[in-house]
């Protein structure tokens, strides 16, 4: 004969009628009461939740790996694109200054002398090579030009 499998979504008692047909065509019927155990149903639901959490965890790990690789591979490009946001103006002192954390300013070929920014002389150093101060009126334009020279892209078209 055939073996059939029944699944029950909710716990409870179910009335099941079993019908068996013999090779001569005679039918035998028997009704039985089946009780679906709530613990078994609960365990199946928990397994599904665990599987969802597992795949979600793998997805998060994949995203974090992609983010880290993007930062590692394109960090110089990202730094130059964000350079414009690192140029700030102090209104009280009317001094323009540039600050780039954790970066040697010599990497940008930008130096400071006599209250002017100098972009081409790598031998002139500042006291704090991570901060440059100056009264240059057009510092934003000069920084944009520096970005263009380094990356070939204009920040302000």
TrEMBL record:
Protein name: PKD domain-containing protein
Matching InterPro entries: PKD_dom_sf
Residue ranges of the TM segments: 52-74
Keywords associated with the record: Membrane, Transmembrane, Transmembrane helix
């Amino acid at each position: 004969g055939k073996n059939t499998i029944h699944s029950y979504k909710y716990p409870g008692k179910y009335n099941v009628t079993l019908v068996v047909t013999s090779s001569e065509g005679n039918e035998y019927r028997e009704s039985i009461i089946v009780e679906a155990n709530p613990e078994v149903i609960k365990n199946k639901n928990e397994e599904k939740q665990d599987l969802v959490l597992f795949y979600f965890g793998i997805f998060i790990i994949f995203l974090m790996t992609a983010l880290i690789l993007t930062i590692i591979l394109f960090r110089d490009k990202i730094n130059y694109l964000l350079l414009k946001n690192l140029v700030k103006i102090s209104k009280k002192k009317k001094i323009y200054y540039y600050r780039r954390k954790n970066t040697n300013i010599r990497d940008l070929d930008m130096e400071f002398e006599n209250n002017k920014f100098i972009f081409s002389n790598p031998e002139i150093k500042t006291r704090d090579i991570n901060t440059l101060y100056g009264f240059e009126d057009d510092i934003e334009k000069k920084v944009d030009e520096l970005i263009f020279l380094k990356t070939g892209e204009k920040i302000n078209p």
